Task: structure prediction
Amino acid sequence: MDGERGFTMAEILVVLAILGVLLAIAGLGSDAVERQRVAGATRELLADLQRVRQDAITRSSGATSRGAGIRFASATSYSTFEFADIDVDYTYDGTAEELAGSVRTKTLSGSLALTLGDPTKTVIIFDKQGMARETNWAFVPSAGLRFTVQSSRLPALAKCIVLSQARIREGVLNGASCVVS
Result:
């Protein structure tokens, strides 16, 4: 029959091969997008830690101001604030000691989550000299504190930040340790 139309097996195979290549590229592209999201969220947390430290040194206001801090509320959000030591005991006693108007909250997007190396250290205060302290005004441990930003979609893409008494450094999570450059 002269008028019949259709596709040859070779044409179908070429179309399937092209679709396979496009799907593979799309899959690789989504990994790259997720990698950029993890890197961006890590850089944002690093910048916020550095800004809070700088604010503690340069912007502390009022007689009871002891510096600035960061409070990790959940695996997907944290807040920065000025620490107003209302009862003047050099101890962070909760959100009532966060100066009104100074609180800024950040939320990680989508599949990203933040993990603290020590889950009991949910609040870090920087004093007016820029030194990192715990809520009871003790210095952070000499080994430092680790924060990890990770994607639930691709857990191997984790990045980390190590905060010591006077340094804040970004690294890559390698097993259980944070390798900083």
The helical segments are 9-58. The CA atoms of residues 72 and 78 lie 4 Å apart.
